[in-house]
Design a protein that fits this description.
By secondary structure, this protein is an all-alpha fold. The protein contains two helices and no strands.
């Protein structure tokens, strides 16, 4: 029971962290003079990169722990 709760809380934290990093990347791109579509693309790319990195780290930790 507690395992599922831990997984859900960790997933929520990772998604929130990815959203915060994506917003920061989009804001910095916009401040650098990028157009709104270009800043949105940078934010989306950053979000995808953070989620991919989290999945890779999770996979590595799962492989090590067994």
């Amino acid at each position: 029971m507690y395992g599922y709760a831990l997984v859900l809380i960790t997933t929520a934290l990772v998604v929130i962290l990815a959203l915060l990093v994506a917003v920061a990347a989009g804001t910095l791109a916009r401040l650098d003079g990028a157009t709104y579509p270009a800043a949105l693309m940078r934010a989306a790319t950053t979000f995808a990169a953070v989620i991919t990195l989290a999945a890779a780290v999770t996979g590595a930790l799962a492989a090590i722990s067994q």
